[in-house]
From TrEMBL:
Domain of life the protein comes from: Bacteria
Protein name: Cytochrome c, class III, conserved region
Classification of source organism: Bacteria, Pseudomonadati, Thermodesulfobacteriota, Desulfobacteria, Desulfobacterales
Keywords from the named record: Electron transport, Heme, Iron, Metal-binding, Signal, Transport
The Class III cytochrome C domain, residue ranges: 40-128
Cofactor binding summary note: Binds 4 heme c groups covalently per monomer.
Cofactor entry: heme c
One Pfam short name: Cytochrom_CIII
NCBIfam families named in the record: c3_cytochr_TmcA
Record InterPro entries: c3_cytochr_TmcA, Cyt_c_III, Cyt_c_III_dom, Multihaem_cyt_sf
Binding-site residues, heme c 2: 69
Length: 132
């Protein structure tokens, strides 16, 4: 085999490998988000995974503060102030609160909304799916 033919085979093999790699890691896989917080070490259940953008589109959620909310010292929601850069435990475990209070906050916000809207999962295993 001459050098030109070998080089052509290598280029073709590289292109085929690149296409296979890209198709194996589709955009959809990168959009899946795990709801995690460093306050939780060992978990009884797996982390909740969902497609953030798809969820918000289906739920018609346009305001990030719907989930990433902030409250003032009187417990009044601060309009337009988002906490996307913080972990939920930064606020929901403040002033002597426990991991149970943090877990309750997650459930009230997520599951509570699903129940209010009568849409979305509400049973434990529907959100906390076992890993294969």
């Amino acid at each position: 085999m001459n050098k030109k033919a070998l080089a052509a085979y290598i280029v073709v093999a590289f292109i085929v490998s690149a296409i296979a790699a890209v198709s194996g890691f589709s955009r959809e896989q990168w959009e899946i988000t795990s709801v995690r917080d460093s306050a939780f070490g060992v978990r009884m259940r797996s982390a909740v995974t969902f497609n953030h953008d798809e969820h918000n589109e289906k739920a018609a959620i346009e305001d990030c503060t719907e989930c990433h909310h902030s409250f003032d010292e009187d417990g009044v929601k601060v309009e337009g102030e988002s906490t996307e850069s913080l972990e939920c435990s930064d606020c929901h475990m403040a002033e002597g609160q426990t991991k149970m209070d943090l877990m309750r906050a997650y459930h009230l916000n997520c599951k509570g909304c699903h129940e209010d809207q009568k849409l979305g999962p509400v049973m434990c295993g529907e959100c906390h799916q076992k890993k294969n």
